[in-house]
Design a protein that fits this description.
- There is one protein chain.
- The chain has about 120 residues and is mostly beta strands.
- Helix content is about 10%, strand content about 50%.
- The chain is built from one helix and seven strands, in the order αβββββββ.
- The strands form two sheets. Strands 1-7-6-3 form a four-stranded mixed beta sheet, with no helix packed on it.
- Strand 6 and strand 7 form a beta hairpin.
- The chain is globular.
């Protein structure tokens, strides 16, 4: 990676939101999406660490023709450690992302239910 790429990556890490979870527990990330404008959040993550198990859109009722609401992504962590999830807000007619959101997911090992008394 060149210096400019390293600077961008470190800036994104600095602005990242840190989330914590345990292996096997569902982790939900909610983002606002305005489909009237053609907005669509696209996640980028390591599938060996996090499995996307749900992607839902809840339209917010309003008195006009706006198609906007809350998009919920559900991940199941399958590996301990810190994992990076980047969401890019895409518009259908643009080649570059309109916005980026970076999340650092800190996953601790899950408890073994059979070991509990």
């Amino acid at each position: 990676m060149n210096r400019q790429g390293e600077a961008l990556a470190s800036e994104q890490e600095r602005d990242a939101k840190v989330l914590t979870s345990r292996m096997g527990e569902l982790l939900r990330i909610r983002l606002w999406e305005d489909r009237t404008r053609g907005e669509l959040w696209i996640p980028c993550y390591d599938p060996a660490a996090l499995v996307l198990v749900g992607d839902d859109f809840l339209r917010i009722a309003s008195g006009n023709a706006v198609d906007a609401g809350r998009r919920t992504f559900e991940f199941k962590p399958v590996a301990p450690g810190t994992h990076r999830v980047v969401f890019e807000k895409r518009l259908g007619w643009k080649f570059t992302a309109e916005e980026r959101r970076v999340f650092l997911v800190q996953v601790s090992p899950g408890g073994d239910c059979s070991a509990r008394g």
